[in-house]
Amino acid sequence: MKRIAILHTVRSVYNSFSGQLMAAVAQPVAISEMVDEFLVTNAREKGYFPPENRRKLYLDLLSMYSGSPDAIVVTCSSLTPFASEFRSSFDVPIITIDDRMCAEAVSGGSRIAVFATAPTTVDPTVSKIQGEADKAGKKVEIASFLDTKAMDLLSSGDTAGHDRRLAELAAREGKGFDTIVLAQASMATALEGVSKASGCRVLTSPGSCIAEIREVLGL
């Protein structure tokens, strides 16, 4: 049986991701999970990802590695560049939530909008997409839009309000793009509303990440 260790920073993703993963695989897997909200709340307060967060992230990964997983999954887009830095320190794959989504974003047109609800996610996601475009030798135009009030609503348990705000953002700003990227896994519930309001392709990370997990582990 394959063992998968998953690091979350948002409880709504913790509540949904492993269930989606289990439903998508054709064989039993053993899943262990950790939630470390400090990694994003502290970075949000400081306005950047400080050294103490890097150390804590490494210790979280080391703790998960001690359980002998076949892969470690990090479901927070804000952590993607930092988790990637630690890949060479472990002899198991470290899969970040938006690896495949950002690659998919550059495959379907050159005008890409990044929607985010956490300030710490914007730059990492834009940089990741640009890096994927550079690897593909493709010129892209990337615009970013941030709505922190949507995150406040989600944190208070108002998922419908969160989704409604993102649909309203899409109606105002999202038209004319080839692709809208919902940068955080916690935003996936807004997919339908954003798609209807914008009329363009909308990408979310949980499904693409699960596809990558299945591919890497042969599930």
Structure description:
This protein is α/β, with parallel strands linked by helices and 219 residues long. It has 2 domains: 2-97 and 207-217, Rossmann fold (3-Layer(aba) Sandwich), CATH 3.40.50; 100-204, Rossmann fold (3-Layer(aba) Sandwich), CATH 3.40.50. The strands form 2 sheets. A 4-stranded parallel beta sheet has the order 2-1-3-4, sandwiched between helices. The mean pLDDT is 94. The chain has 10 helices and 8 strands. Helix 9 links the parallel strand 7 (179-182) and strand 8.
End-to-end distance, in Å?
A: 10 Å
How does the overall form come out from the CA principal axes? Answer: globular
CATH architecture grouping of the largest domain: 3-Layer(aba) Sandwich
With strands numbered from the N-terminus, the spatial order across the biggest sheet is 2-1-3-4
DSSP E strands, number = 8
Main sheet properties: 4 strands, parallel
> pLDDT below 50 for ≥5 consecutive residues: which ranges?
none
Structural class: alpha/beta
Number of helices: 10
Number of domains: 2
In CATH terms, what is the fold-level topology of the largest domain? Rossmann fold
- Which CATH C-level class of the largest domain is it? Alpha Beta
Strand content: 15-25%
What is the chain-wise order of helices and strands? EHEHHEHEHEHEHHEHEH
